[in-house]
Amino acid sequence: MRNHRIMRFLLGRTDALGDVVISLPVRERILSRMPEAEVHWLVRPYAAPLLRGLGTVHLREDGQDLAALLRAIAPDAVLNLGHRDQAIITAARAAGVPVRVARSRGRQIWEATHVLWNGRNGTGRPEAMNVLDFLKPWGWEGGWPAPPRLVLDAAERERGRADLAHLPRPRLGVATRSSGSSAYPSAAWWDRALAVVREAGWTPVILSPPEDAPLPPADLRGLLARIAACDVFLGPSTGPTQIAGALDVPTLALMGLTSNRGPSRWAPLGRRVQVLQYPPPEADLSGGMDRLDPRDLLPHLARLAQPEA
């Protein structure tokens, strides 16, 4: 019989990969306050491999009986960390989940037991701190979030090294584009930038998106392994850049300027992260990144490549 003293949390995060990574500090904070707690995840199938070794994972699929799934999981609390998938809170209410935490969006306002009314835009807070707000019912939300950490086993790391073994070091993993609303440089800018870093002695390899990569296709775990095999990772505000930081790979993030798109909210929280912001005006999202001088990458890459003291 289940021990009534052990709380079971279900963290719903059914949006992009980067959002899942940013939410990892919620699990860490729960376990730092209640080590015996069970932390489960509800994510889309494409994100599930990201969470291997980080709790029990359940899949959010279209057309499923979500209330039945939640009855089977039997969580004590559901935290809907995203705001778009409001059906999670509806299903949690139908399933009789005692504690339901959500943002003040739509029907969540009356279906949740605890509603977060504070906004996220313009606060200057990192997004990982914003998701810690979901722990307010327990008084665990305060303080700086622990950097997200992803898990790779020895075999996966060896697989990544083998995939990149033909590339001389230092290797620079690259993500050229974002799948979301964030700005990213044009293909022409990347052509110039990669030529500059090659001339400086780096071996750049595009790892994301897959259609731009020169390597054979890899699954998500394979992408993590390849990122981990790089000496430095470079990319705009996108999932693979967040992944690199969470794998403790030295990371250079290309970011915007405003509080909603810039590093104060979206920069990876990894231990070795540098940020390069493109020049103003911020409103020019379509071409703003192309105003960056590729040579400005080099001092950042040189610093990231230095051995740690």
From TrEMBL:
<dbReference type="GO" id="GO:0009244">
    <property type="term" value="P:lipopolysaccharide core region biosynthetic process"/>
</dbReference>
<dbReference type="GO" id="GO:0005829">
    <property type="term" value="C:cytosol"/>
</dbReference>
<keyword id="KW-0808">Transferase</keyword>
<dbReference type="InterPro" id="IPR002201">
    <property type="entry name" value="Glyco_trans_9"/>
</dbReference>
<protein>
    <submittedName>
        <fullName>ADP-heptose--LPS heptosyltransferase II</fullName>
    </submittedName>
</protein>
<dbReference type="InterPro" id="IPR051199">
    <property type="entry name" value="LPS_LOS_Heptosyltrfase"/>
</dbReference>
<keyword id="KW-0328">Glycosyltransferase</keyword>
<dbReference type="GO" id="GO:0008713">
    <property type="term" value="F:ADP-heptose-lipopolysaccharide heptosyltransferase activity"/>
</dbReference>
<dbReference type="Pfam" id="PF01075">
    <property type="entry name" value="Glyco_transf_9"/>
</dbReference>
